[in-house]
Design a protein that fits this description.
Layout: H1 2-5, H2 10-29, H3 32-47
Length: 78
């Protein structure tokens, strides 16, 4: 529930606007494809989905850097 009302990025606002535009076009013209597009963009905007859900590489909003770099040990494999 917290995700629905917080962390609204520009992409989510753009999807919401596109949903509204497609919904207005669907109502005025009666096009079924416009209803589908409005639902698609509306669901993405409301639930914070996008880029096929988990395939999008977006950083978390409140990420704090560790400042710690772990040393990497390499082994030679024969």
């Amino acid at each position: 529930m917290n995700r629905l009302f917080r962390d609204w990025s520009a992409a989510r606002w753009l999807r919401l606007v596109l949903a509204g535009v497609f919904l207005a076009a669907a109502i005025s013209e009666g096009e079924m494809l416009a209803y589908v597009a409005a639902a698609w963009f509306g669901i993405q905007a409301i639930f914070g989905l996008g880029c096929c859900s988990t395939a999008c590489a977006t950083p978390p909003a409140n990420r704090k850097p560790d400042g710690f770099v772990k040393e990497v040990d390499y082994e030679e494999v024969h």
